[in-house]
Design a protein that fits this description.
This protein has about 210 residues and is mainly α. About 70% of the residues lie in helices and about 0% in strands. It has helices spanning about 5-25, 35-45, 60-80, 95-110, 115-130, 130-140, 145-170, 180-190, 195-200, and strands at about 145, 210. Helix 2 packs antiparallel against helix 3 and helix 7 packs antiparallel against helix 8. The protein is globular, with a radius of gyration of 17 Å.
Length: about 210
């Protein structure tokens, strides 16, 4: 594992800790997309089935278990104790189209035609667009609290660091290629483009985060 992969994983962990802390401290899930969180549960559930049949490392297994458990816990919080604070009217993106599109790409362009590899490919394609309900909700409201902004930034930053990781591996490892992850990762990072611009020009200057409506 190189430093870019490690930094990306730590930023991903950080994003989840930020969100859980925000939900527990404010006792509100206002401004958070339940649909995005549900998509992440589906992403991790379909990606990490391999841990039941193969062992890579303790680090790898612990990370997989954490992402599965934490994503399920976030959805539990939003569906149970914090449900009265969730505004369904703002969380309107039709995620069935995202799921269907990811499934179609997984069947047409899988890593390999095995059940686990098709599911892995599905999870990669779905993760690329899983943030869209959250970004749309922020656009509809035109603003977001700073903690939510930090959460979304950490998610986008983790994927951007993975691109650096892939470039590093391409030049330092023999015969390294992963076109599915590369294309999906670039698409995912591009989706954060406007968000990154506003984050750097407003939040880092101490201003309120506001998106164009």
């Amino acid at each position: 594992m190189n430093i870019f992969r490690l930094a990306a994983d730590l930023l991903h962990l950080g994003s989840i800790f930020i969100l859980i802390a925000r939900l527990r401290q404010t006792k509100s899930c206002a401004g958070i997309s339940l649909k995005t969180q549900g998509l992440y549960v589906l992403v991790f559930a379909t990606r990490y089935l391999d841990m039941f049949i193969s062992f890579v490392s303790v680090y790898n297994t612990l990370m997989k278990l954490f992402f599965l458990a934490s994503s399920a816990y976030i959805v539990f919080l939003m569906l149970s104790p914090l449900k009265p604070t969730y505004d369904k009217a703002l969380d309107t993106l039709r995620v069935e189209y995202l799921i269907a599109g990811a499934a179609a790409f997984a069947l047409l362009f899988p890593h390999k035609y095995t059940v686990l590899e098709v599911l892995w490919s599905f999870s990669i394609y779905l993760e690329a667009v899983a943030i869209m309900p959250q970004l749309l909700q922020m656009t509809r409201t035109g603003e977001a609290d700073n903690i939510t902004s930090h959460y979304v930034f950490a998610l986008g930053g983790y994927r951007a660091l993975y691109i650096v990781n892939w470039i590093y591996r391409y030049y330092t490892e023999d015969n390294y290629s992963d076109y599915i992850a590369w294309v999906a990762g670039v698409v995912q990072t591009v989706l954060y483009g406007d968000f990154f611009y506003i984050y750097f020009t407003r939040i880092l200057k101490g201003k309120t985060f506001k998106l164009p409506v």
